[in-house]
Amino acid sequence: MKSVRLNQCARLVLALCVSLIIHTVVSIPYAIGETGKGEKVMSISQGKTISIEYTLKLEDKTVVDSNVGGGPLTYIHGSHQIIPGLEKALEGMKIGDIKEVTVKPEEGYGPLDVNALMEVNKEMIPPDAVEIGNHLQGKDQNGKVFSARIAEIKENTVVMDFNHPLAGKTLYFDVKVLNILEVPQP
Questions:
Q1: Same domain, 104 and 84
Q2: Which of 15, 113, 158, 184 has the fewest CB atoms within 10 Å, measured from its CB?
Q3: DSSP code, position 40
Q4: Using one digit for the tens of pLDDT, what is the confidence trace for 18-67?
Q5: Which pTM was predicted?
Q6: Has residue 186 been placed in a domain?
Q7: What is the pLDDT of residue 6?
Q8: Residue pair 90/76 in contact by the 8 Å Cβ criterion
Q9: Exposed/middle/buried for 57, CB within 10 Å: 0-12, 13-18, 19+?
């Protein structure tokens, strides 16, 4: 075989072509959502099973709930298993992503509903439970369990608040995506 000598210009063009080919081959998986190992990089979207770690705080920084150090919260994205504002904010995130999310009442547990306040005869409440802030549970005529908070105590009646305890509140979440699983379609 004959050896061919390339001049400097031809070598430069060849080096650029090889570099471009290598860059293209390495970049393609990332452009189509894969890692360099051929694994797909999934992001949160409709129908996927999502596992997150979270801490929920109120405006005054009071921690209301957290699963940090415990088991993850797992839900199916888009199935309304978590509050709408949080679900919208998680859309597109990937495993390992961390985000601070602020959820207004309208996208959380709703605004306070004045129609959810009901005045009941004080005699209907156990005497040792008649204290503002106490949460009581009961069953309605159909056997459905409900809970209410004592909002006000009057002379002969008690005002019960049937709003969700977080209704009317802006919620502050610190969230980390732990896992994303594709749910097989039937």
A1: yes
A2: 184
A3: B
A4: 444 444 444 333 333 455 555 667 999 999 999 999 999 999 999 999 99
A5: 0.70
A6: no
A7: 43
A8: no
A9: middle
DSSP assignment letter at 85: H
User: For tokens 């980390």, what's the residue?
Assistant: 176
Note whether residue 9 is domain-resident: yes
Tokens linked to 22: 């290598």
The answer to whether residues 131 and 149 belong to one domain is: yes
Closest to 118 measured CA to CA, from 145, 144, 152, 155: 152
User: If DSSP states are collapsed to H, E and C, what string results for 114-155?
Assistant: HHHEEEEEHHHCCHHHCCCCCEEEEECCCCCEEEEEEEEECC
Side-chain half-sphere of 1: how many Cα atoms within 13 Å?
3
Q: Which residues of the chain have pLDDT under 50?
A: 1-7, 9-10, 12-33
Tokens of 151: 């909002």
**Count of domains observed in the chain:** 3
Structure tokens at 52: 């997150």
Structure tokens at 9: 């210009």
Tokens describing residue 184:
């097989």
CATH number at residue 122: 2.40.10.330
Q: Containing domain of residue 125, as a range? A: 114-161
Assess if residue 124 is contained within a domain: yes
